[in-house]
Please model this.
Amino acid sequence: MKNNVLIIGGGPAGLEAASGLQRLGYNVILIERTTMLGGHLASWDRLFPDGASATGALDGLLARMDGVKCFTDTEVQSINRLEKSYNVILSNGITVLADAVLVASGFDLFKAERKEEYGYGIYDHVITNADLEAWFASGSDTRIDSPNKIGFVHCVGSRDEKSGCRSCSKVCCATAVKQACEMKQAFPDAQIYCFYMDLRMFGRHYEDLYLGAQKEYGVRFIRGRVAEVSENVDGSLLVKAEDTVAGKPLKVTLDLLVLMAGMRPSAAGRRVGGLLQMPVEEDGFFAVRDGILSGQRSQLPGLFLAGAATGPKTLPETLADARGAVTEIDRYLSDVFPNAKNYKTLVRERW
Model:
């Protein structure tokens, strides 16, 4: 008898875990609340540090989904813990008796309009990293019109007590540097500025990306927070900041300002968590049983977590976390349902 595993979330973590569990012989049901699979990856154009195609990465994940039952435009209506399983009623009317549940609900981008001093939603030429990535993919955005001076503001909604998030979003620095290089490629004569607190370029080849931005593209990095943004009569932006290296205030007139919105807990994930009273950390992301030895196990039996549901992660980290969740789920189900071992052994031998 196959064990049922329900995966909540069709982003990279959910897709990677689904294909892994399917190969191990489990009956996998994946639900996604939106109309398409892929999460934020589906709306991205290029990935750091080497500019790999986001579409290519997503296609690779989807190609391994044969045999997985996927339901889009579907959410959890109710979920109740039974003796060894979860009874889950979905918004499409289907009821699933799941022996294990994986929450891979991803993240939401910080709502940049909350930082009123930056003018997002007020001034025409203030956009977010997601807006810019959409422009890279489509080439269509009336706010981006041959800019000569472009600025990037790091840590928007991250490492900010006033925004309710002290932690780092991990991807903003590398994304800003990647996008700065791409804008220089699109507009070779443009002057580009990055306003940062401190650069956290921790991954392999990330430092090369940063050095290349300076040497090959002439991106100017200014250490210090942007204090205020206002709009001039001609529609350009006056940015007031502090250069903490030079130790003096700075004013720069820009044609375009890009806000690097950070990762926040998914509202959809929080709703599911509320149905089960799942514990969360101070930052709002789900708490795990043990951050060292059981990073994919929740504090509830048979309920697992993967990807950005437990905090900001890069795409490689998200995929690795999903693979870890596959291992944890397999170990749990083998212990709780030992009679299913013979079937899974046969599947693995054939695979």
